[in-house]
Design goal:
This protein has 414 residues and is an alpha/beta fold. It contains 13 helices and nine strands. The longest helix is centred in the middle third of the chain and has 18 residues. Iron/sulfur cluster (SF4) binds next to loops.
């Protein structure tokens, strides 16, 4: 399908959709819903959430069977400095708060990556603030002193180090990127990521959580997703639930992701992430995303994106009941670390692998570790990875494209 509207401008949806039973029937037959059909889900109340969850789970089963994956990872917060301000963020720091640790040094990065590899991890997730050198002279000086003009140049350097000096695979998640920046990272990253968060314009209006975050404008983020598609980079994206967007906004965000994937085939997974209020932020008094609303969104994501999509819910953000999302059509738990905390949600520890496995199996599924690139992007194709990277990735995978050794790698460990 071709995207026929400018990015950031969703095609106008009608005011209502066809009857719910028609839509559920189509979904159960395994067909992804169109935008107009998805509108039938807007009015689904708590009494009928289970119905759309069942349709989503049935759609998932048709393509993914009973396999649920996770990515054993370490989280590398290369810098907490950021030029933007989002109303819910506790990750960002200014230079005073960061003290002498403006950026992790190459030695610190390699130490974490090697320690993760020793524990059986395969993904080095680089998450960092957006272009801090554009706001802070201290960041510019730190980078210039080491021969880099930008944070993204430095990121490229440390990704290369990790790829060449460890058995880990980098997955860069640095925010918005230009074409040349994605192209520079590509030889060292089998996949990259950036949350779309939402296409809602209300979120960056006055008083919204993105008012002071130019990088969160939907048009800019959709452009990064488009560039990744043009460059054939397997890409992770997702939406954030409960930051002031409406159900209709979520449907439009998912449709925008679906359109880009239909055009380029590069959206390897979609994260459905629930907002959690954090003290000392502008949104500290906001309620956390409600479970029923989150279930609705997870199911709708599956129904819109179709049976082949990889849909993820982070288990650490719903610690008390994350297994319920298995019944709403997900097939992945995302990155889980035995070593490092979730620096974006430091209050939310990862579940131990033994617990994650027990809960997944109790629900009737098999838990398998995956690489930061999904099997369909390298197993029977050389379209997405440069030769050297394809060789390294293939050497780490079993015959089905999952991490060699499977869960045995973690036997005897939490
Ligand atoms: S969420 Fe990301 S872009 Fe927004 S302030 Fe935090 S680090 Fe910066």
């Amino acid at each position: 399908m071709t995207v026929s509207v400018p990015f950031g401008e969703a095609p106008r949806l009608p005011d209502s959709g066809p009857p719910l039973h028609e839509v559920i029937g189509k979904a159960k037959a395994g067909s992804a819903l169109s935008g107009a059909e998805a509108l039938a889900l807007l009015a689904v109340g708590p009494d009928a959430t289970h119905e759309i969850c069942a349709a989503a789970a049935s759609m998932r089963d048709q393509a993914k069977g009973k396999t649920i994956t996770f990515s054993p990872k370490v989280f590398i917060p290369l810098t907490h400095l950021c030029r933007d301000f989002c109303g819910y963020c506790t990750f960002r720091k200014d230079p005073k708060q960061a003290g002498k640790d403006l950026f992790m040094t190459p030695e610190q990065v390699l130490d974490v990556a090697k320690a993760g590899a020793a524990l059986g991890c395969t993904e080095a997730l680089f998450t960092l603030g957006e272009r801090p050198e554009q706001r802070y002279p201290e960041a510019r000086e730190w980078l210039e002193h080491r021969g880099f003009r930008t944070t993204l140049e430095y990121l490229t350097h440390v990704c290369q180090l990790v790829l060449e000096e460890t058995s880990m695979l980098p997955h860069a998640n640095p925010g918005t990127m230009a074409r040349r920046e994605i192209a520079a990272l590509q030889p060292f990253n089998p996949s990259m990521g950036m949350m779309l968060e939402s296409t809602s314009e209300a979120l960056y209006a006055k008083g919204g959580p993105h008012e002071f975050a130019p990088s969160k404008r939907p048009r800019v983020r959709l452009r990064t997703l488009e560039l990744a598609g043009e460059l054939r980079v397997p890409f992770t994206t997702g939406i954030l639930i409960g930051i002031g967007e409406s159900r209709r906004d979520r449907i439009e965000s998912l449709l925008a992701i679906g359109r880009l994937n239909a055009q380029f085939g590069h959206v390897q997974e979609v994260i459905i992430q629930n907002f959690r209020a954090k003290p000392d932020t502008a949104m500290g008094d906001f309620p956390d995303a409600e479970t029923d609303e989150f279930l609705w969104t997870v199911a709708v994501a599956r129904l819109i994106l179709g049976p082949g999509a990889n849909i993820q819910v982070p288990p650490n953000l719903s610690a008390e009941n994350y297994q319920i999302y298995l019944d709403a059509g997900i097939n992945d738990w995302g990155g889980v670390s035995p070593l490092t905390i979730d620096f974006v949600n430091p209050e939310a520890p990862w579940p131990a692998l033994t617990e994650l496995r027990a809960k997944t199996e109790a629900a009737g599924f098999q838990l398998r570790p995956r690489l930061p690139i999904y099997p369909e992007y390298f197993l029977d194709t050389t379209e997405f990875l440069p030769d050297a990277l394809h060789q390294k990735v293939s050497a780490m995978a079993d015959s089905e494209g999952y991490v060699q050794g499977g869960m045995q790698r973690y036997a005897g460990r939490n």
